[in-house]
Amino acid sequence: MKKYSYELKLKIVKEKEEGYGDRHLAKKYKVSRTSVKAWYNHYRYLGEEGLKEYKENPTYTEEFRDLGLSLSSL
Q1: What is the model's pTM?
Q2: Where is the Insertion element IS150 protein InsJ-like helix-turn-helix domain (predicted)?
C-alpha cells in the first residue's frame, strides 16, 4: 500500500471543500477516488489529525464508526 504525505492529503481535502469532485481530484493527484473519500471523511470527523499517519491503530469516535457503517449500506 502506497503512503501519501500529510501535506498532499490536506491539499486534496481543502480542494474538495472548495467544490472539486472526487473524480477530478483523484485524476489530478493520481490517487484513488476511495482514498479521496476516506481522507475527506477522516478530516470531517477528526480534523487535520485524521490525515496524519499513526504507528498504532487510531481510536475512532462512535459517531465516526457509525458513519462507516451507514456508508457501506449505500
Answers
A1: 0.70
A2: 9-52
Tell the residue number behind the cell numbers 504507528, with chain if given: 55
Residue ranges making up the domain that contains 22:
6-72
**Given this model, what pLDDT does residue 8 score?**
95
Whole-number Å distance between alpha carbons of 40 and 20: 12
Residue 33, in any domain of the structure: yes
- Average pLDDT on 11-38 reads 96
- Can you spell out the DSSP letters for 8-58? HHHHHHHHHHTT--HHHHHHHHT--HHHHHHHHHHHHHHGGGGGS--SSPP
